[in-house]
Amino acid sequence: MLKEYTLPFVGLKDGKHNFSFTIDNTFFEHFEFDEFNEARLEGFLILDKKPNFLELHFDVRGKVSLTCDVSMEWFDHQVTTKYDLIVKFGVASDNASDEIVVLPEGSYQINVAHYFYEIIVLSLPLKRVHPGIENGTLDSEILEKLKALEPKEEKLNGQLDPRWNKLKDLL
């Protein structure tokens, strides 16, 4: 799976080694992730080899095209994320953390594709809102329909219903 993301570290000298990757839609197809219309990302990895462990410093920059949760319009979302990982060698234990990976003794390579995938997907916002909605520049039929369906303040005899005032106090 994604051979270009497999890094043989046995032949490397101790110290820092730089790697770069182009991450696009074909990368995400391997993980069956299809929420992007288009992905244009650059992944950078600094592998710092120490005598007994490895330090991996991930850095991802670029854009992905997402669907807005409100208007269903596509928009470009800027991705900038970093992540650090320590790779140890030995027997995996139950109390491992997200920042430490344990590889079996005698391992000579590591595939970093899954780590790139996770840090990109986890960097995405939970609620995806088109920037045009936030600044009021997006013109969409769906937005117009939502505005038309917004609840109106009800008035009794020309006055605002006092029940609504009590509810506004809760905010």
Features:
171 residues, alpha+beta, single chain
Describe the protein's architecture and organization.
This protein has 171 residues and is of the alpha+beta class. It has one domain (3-130). Helix content is 22%, strand content 37%. The chain has helices spanning 25-29, 113-123, 131-135, 141-148, 162-170, and strands at 6-8, 15-23, 39-49, 54-67, 74-89, 100-103, 109-111, 155-156, 159-160. The strands form three sheets. It has a five-stranded mixed β-sheet with strand order 2-3-4-5-6. Strands 1-7 form a two-stranded antiparallel sheet. The protein is elongated, with a radius of gyration of 24 Å. The chain starts with 5 loop residues before the first strand and ends with a helix.
User: What is the overall silhouette?
Assistant: elongated
Cα-atom radius of gyration: 24 Å
Count of all domains: 1
Q: Count of DSSP E strands?
A: 9
The largest pleated sheet is described as: 5 strands, mixed
Indicate the low-confidence ranges by residue numbers: none
Beta-strand share of residues: 35-45%
Count, helices: 5
Strand line-up across the major sheet: 2-3-4-5-6
Short characterization:
The protein is α+β, with helices and mostly antiparallel strands and 171 residues long. The protein is built from 5 helices and 9 strands.
Question: What is the fold's blueprint, element by element?
Answer:
Blueprint: E1 6-8, E2 15-23, H1 25-29, E3 39-49, E4 54-67, E5 74-89, E6 100-103, E7 109-111, H2 113-123, H3 131-135, H4 141-148, E8 155-156, E9 159-160, H5 162-170
Parallel strand pairs: 5-6
Antiparallel strand pairs: 1-7, 2-3, 3-4, 4-5, 8-9
